[in-house]
C-alpha cells in the first residue's frame, strides 16, 4: 500500500461507531478504522461487481471508485440490481452511482468512464491513493495488466467473474500479514485461542498461472481432489480460448467446441494430474460451456460477489486469512474450492 494512500487517516465518528457497532464488536475498532480509511477501485459494473459493491459499501469503506466505459443493456438488468429499466442506454456508472450512494451515505462514491482513465499512462496516478483494486469480468490479459500495475504501486489486487454457472476469485496481496489462531497450542473448550501474526506471500497472476504444474506436484492425491481441479482447468481453458478466438464464445457453440476441447486437454495434461482425478474435457461439456459462459446467472453472481466482498474486507481488516489464492465456484452444486497456485 502506497505511503500516500496511508496519509492522514480519519478517525471514526460517533455516528459511524453507532452505525457500525455490530461490526466493531466483531472485528474491533482498529479494523473498522482501516476500512473507514480505505479507497477501493472496482472495475466493470456487471453482476459480480454489484454484489461486491453492496457488501463493501454497507461495511463502511471510506471511498469507492467505480470504472466502466459501457452503457446499461437489457441483459444487465437480470444480475445488475443497481440498474433499473429506465437506465437502459445510460452509462453504467451514471446509472449505478445514486443507488450505491443510497446504500450508505457515509461512503464517498466516485465514477470513471473514459478508457483513458485506466490506461497504462493513467494507472500509476490512479493507484497512488488506492488501497485495493477489484477487477471483475475481464480478460486474462486485462487482469494481468492491472495486477502488474498494482504490484508497482504496492496495492492489493482482486479479480473475480463468472462464466455461466462457474465463477472464480483470484487474490494477489503480495506480502500480507494477518492474525490467525495459534495452532501450536491446545485450547480448552469454550476458550478463545491465542491469536498470532501470520504472513502469506502471494504470487502475481502471471506467476500463479506459470506454477500450475508444480503446484499439483506438491499436493497429495487427496488434496488435489479436494481442490476440484476440473473447475480451475475449465476457467483457465476459457481464458486461453478467449485469447485465441476473440468473440467466438458468443457465436455458435457447436462451431468452436473442438477448439475448446483441444485447449482444455492440453492444459489438463500440463497439470500432471491423473486422469482418474482430472479426466479430459468432452465435446459435449465444451459445447455446454460455450453455450452458457457468455450469460450471467443471478444466484452465481450473488454468491461469488458475496465471497469476494467478504474476502476484500478480511484483507483490509487483517483479522483473518484471506483466500490463498485461486477460488473456483460451481453454481450447479453450490460449492467452492481454493487452489494455492504458487503461494508460499
From TrEMBL:
Residue ranges of every copy of the THIF-type NAD/FAD binding fold domain listed in the record: 20-330
GO biological process: protein sumoylation
Family annotation (SUPFAM superfamilies): Activating enzymes of the ubiquitin-like proteins (SSF69572)
Keywords: Nucleus, Ubl conjugation pathway
UniProt keyword Cytoplasm present: no
Pathway the protein takes part in: Protein modification; protein sumoylation
Superkingdom of this protein's organism: Eukaryota
Key word Membrane present: no
Localization (cell): Nucleus
GO CC term, one of those recorded: SUMO activating enzyme complex
Family affiliation: Belongs to the ubiquitin-activating E1 family.
Listed name of the protein: Ubiquitin-like 1-activating enzyme E1A
Phylogenetic lineage: Eukaryota, Fungi, Dikarya, Basidiomycota, Agaricomycotina
Amino acid at each position: 500500500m502506497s505511503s500516500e494512500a496511508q496519509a492522514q487517516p480519519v478517525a471514526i465518528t460517533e455516528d459511524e461507531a453507532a452505525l457500525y457497532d455490530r461490526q466493531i464488536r466483531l472485528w474491533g475498532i482498529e479494523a473498522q478504522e482501516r476500512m473507514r480509511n480505505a479507497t477501493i477501485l472496482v472495475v466493470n459494473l456487471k453482476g459480480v461487481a454489484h454484489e461486491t459493491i453492496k457488501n463493501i459499501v454497507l461495511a463502511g469503506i471510506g471511498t469507492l471508485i467505480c470504472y466502466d466505459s459501457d452503457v446499461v443493456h437489457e441483459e444487465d438488468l437480470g444480475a445488475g440490481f443497481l440498474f433499473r429499466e429506465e437506465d437502459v442506454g445510460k452509462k453504467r456508472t451514471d446509472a449505478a452511482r445514486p443507488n450505491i450512494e443510497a446504500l450508505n451515505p457515509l461512503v464517498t462514491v466516485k465514477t470513471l468512464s473514459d478508457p483513458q482513465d485506466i490506461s497504462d499512462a493513467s494507472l500509476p496516478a490512479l493507484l497512488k491513493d488506492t488501497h485495493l483494486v477489484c477487477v471483475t469480468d475481464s480478460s486474462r490479459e486485462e487482469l494481468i495488466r492491472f495486477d502488474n500495475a498494482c504490484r508497482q504501486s504496492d496495492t492489493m489486487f482482486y479479480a473475480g467473474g463468472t462464466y455461466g454457472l462457474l465463477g472464480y476469485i483470484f487474490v494477489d496481496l503480495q506480502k500480507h500479514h494477518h492474525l490467525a489462531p495459534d495452532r501450536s497450542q491446545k485450547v480448552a473448550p469454550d476458550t478463545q485461542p491465542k491469536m498470532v501474526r501470520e504472513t502469506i506471500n502471494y504470487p502475481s497472476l502471471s506467476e500463479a498461472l506459470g506454477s500450475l504444474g508444480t503446484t499439483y506436484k506438491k499436493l497429495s492425491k487427496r488434496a488435489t481432489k479436494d481442490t476440484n481441479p476440473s473447475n480451475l482447468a475449465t476457467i483457465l481453458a476459457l481464458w486461453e480460448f478467449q485469447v485465441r478466438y476473440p468473440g467466438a464464445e458468443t457465436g455458435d457453440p457447436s462451431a468452436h467446441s473442438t477448439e475448446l476441447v483441444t485447449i482444455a486437454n492440453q492444459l489438463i495434461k500440463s497439470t500432471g494430474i491423473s486422469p482418474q482425478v482430472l479426466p479430459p474435457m468432452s465435446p459435449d461439456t465444451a459445447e455446454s460451456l460455450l453455450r452458457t459462459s457468455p450469460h450471467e446467472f443471478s444466484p452465481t453472481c450473488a454468491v461469488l460477489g458475496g465471497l469476494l466482498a467478504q474476502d476484500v474486507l478480511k484483507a483490509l481488516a487483517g483479522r483473518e486469512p484471506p483466500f490463498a489464492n485461486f477460488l473456483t465456484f460451481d453454481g450447479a452444486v453450490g460449492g467452492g474450492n481454493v487452489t494455492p497456485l504458487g503461494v508460499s
